[in-house]
Amino acid sequence: MQTTTTPSIPGRDGFDVVILGGGLAGLSLARHLLLETDKTVLLIEKRHELPPMRQKVGESSVQLAGWYFSKMLDMESYLFHEHFMKYNLRFYWKSGGGENRDFEDYGASYIRPFSNIASYQVDRNTFEGELLRRNRESDRFRVQLLAVDLGVTLAADASSDPHEVRFRVGEEHHTIQARWVVDTTGRRRFLAKKQELARPNSIQHGAFFWWVDGLVDIEKLSDLDPKSRRLHPNHRQTGHLPQWLATNHFCDEGLWFWVIPLQGKTSLGLVFDSDVIHWRDVFSVEKATRWVCERFPMFARDLPNREVLDFGGYKTFSHDCVQTLSSSRWAMTGESGRFTDPLYSPGSDLISIYNTLVVDAVQTDDPAELTRKCQTYESLMKAVYQAYVPTYAVSYDCLGDQECFSLKYAWELAIYFGVYVFPFINELLTDRRFIIAFLRQFSRLGPMNRGIQGLLSGFYQWKKDHRLPTDGPRFFDFTELGTLRAAEKTFYQVGVSVDEAKKIVRQQVDNFEEMALFIAAHVASVVLDDPKVLTSRAYVEALDVNDLSFDPGAMAARWAEHRDDPGLQEWSFDPFVLERFRTEATLPVAEEVAS
Fold first, then answer.
1. Host H or E run for residue 16
2. Which long-range contacts (CB under 8 A, 24 or more apart) does 484-487 make?
3. Distance CA 204, CA 392 (A)
4. Which of 28, 245, 435, 512 is surrounded by the fewest CB atoms within 10 Å?
5. HSE of 443 in the Cβ direction (CA atoms, 13 Å)?
6. Cis link prior to 51 (omega < 30° from 0)?
7. Is the Cβ–Cβ distance between 217 and 227 less than 8 Å?
């Protein structure tokens, strides 16, 4: 799929869209434009080959991007033939019952069935090569490699004048006129820096990653013989589908280690809060391998013996941007604009959403309508991005405890399914009537989400001092929490009208309010060591869903006020699904508060 040729500029000096950068964001945007519009597209890339020789990170896709790549970009058959269909996200924790040398020693949280919307473990190099090949089949597409000394002059009159894009190929200098300029240069962030729009955010995380030859089959990292592995009682909870097909996360406080299968190789990566691990301690294959094998001993039987194919890392990777879409006919998509964190694999999702909005803007000729769209779309982009940030900036420590993280992820996944995936698969994010109503409902989530993230982080820190370690692995299917199960059902609600979609989103947000109250009540029931808190209607009604926090003293006082009220709280799901995590507290909070 690689090419070292440098195609000459075609016999024209202008294009409808010039895309800066030839990675996943740029190539997928080009294909989207070629499929959905009649626009001419020039993709400019400084490298001499696409895809590059070095292996590219970012292989895990989830439902939104899976839909975008397979359905909207018409790559479904190719993805099934050339890449692994993904078995959801799965998370693992060491248990206190053994040395954790065997896979069977680890507890897990997961979704047991395959998702109704397929997602994939994407070898970025192979996939991007195929995108380029298909783009080149169109006579409206050109790619220019080896383009250096890039310069862009944005038009003074955005309503009529073209932009000017300049670059050099060898000794030749070129000037191209472009109606639209879209930056997909990734971490180079060409337009964001040029326009002084680049901004930091509150996420301070790093990552080191490497690829090894062959499949790291986590289920075989065990002293058990094959028959004993096949018949192990853990399968009563986990089932029999190959767990190596998942994006597998091995978790601890403020960090996680990924294991992702690709055709013929395995992607490995350690992501960490910079307050937990210093990048110097893990920034080589030798250091990272040693660190992982010490922290998660089951890998010591495999990783040191693997042939390493490539590696890389980021001391820090998260960033924000003031603006990513303008009615002056420029845009940013992919990491050139905003990026949060690889946990939950949101990078390709953001590409999918941004590309969809950019393509619709590119097709809008009326300046007044374009201005209205860009203002609305930029508000949507900011809201989507900013909703992710507390997940990573506030409660990353919850990765250290299975119960805390299971609550956190079930909450976040329900929101993802119900108000991210559902509108996207119904192609509603370019319908202004829907977006206005959507943002109104979405704003209800902000205070709840901030409160939940702080509550769960506080709960985790409390558990470090007050809870005994588990005596063996625990297993939990996230969909046992009914709110998530209800959100997943929206995948089947396709082809709905705008009015129907508004009602569905409103109902989902109502469900999230119930889930927020449940999380607060469950945490209090553990802290107070009294399961009856969960069924106390008076206690639950005294909670403010927009003002949740972790305050054991307030929990104890509220329970003292309402514990004798006989009214029973009615939940739409079983409130005791987390009882498997309940262990005796070392110091009941009532005694602590009293002292």
1. strand 14-20
2. 484/410, 484/413, 484/414, 484/417, 485/573, 486/414, 486/418, 486/511, 486/572, 487/413, 487/414, 487/415, 487/416, 487/417, 487/418, 487/511
3. 9
4. 245
5. 7
6. yes
7. no
Band of residue 71 on the pLDDT scale cut at 50, 70, 90: very high
Nearest to 266 by CA among 213, 306, 218: 213
> Per the structure block, which two tokens stand in for 92?
């693992």
Nearest by Cα to 22 from 4, 58, 46, 3? 46
Strands 205-213 and 308-314: antiparallel
What the block records as the tokens of 561 is 């006020």
SS3 assignment, position 506: helix
Nearest CA-CA partner of 115 in 350, 425, 403, 398: 425
- Residue 491 CA to chain centroid, in angstroms? 18
The residue type found at 62 is V
Residue pair 201/387 in contact by the 8 Å Cβ criterion: no
Residue 2 pLDDT level (bands cut at 50, 70, 90) = very low
Cβ neighbours for 594, distance < 8 A, ≥ 6 positions apart: none
Per-residue pLDDT reduced to its tens digit, 183-238: 999 999 999 999 999 999 999 999 999 999 999 999 999 999 999 999 999 999 99
CA distance linking residue 86 with residue 66, whole number of Å: 10
Beta bridge partners, 113, equal none
Question: Would you state the pLDDT for residue 5?
Answer: 38
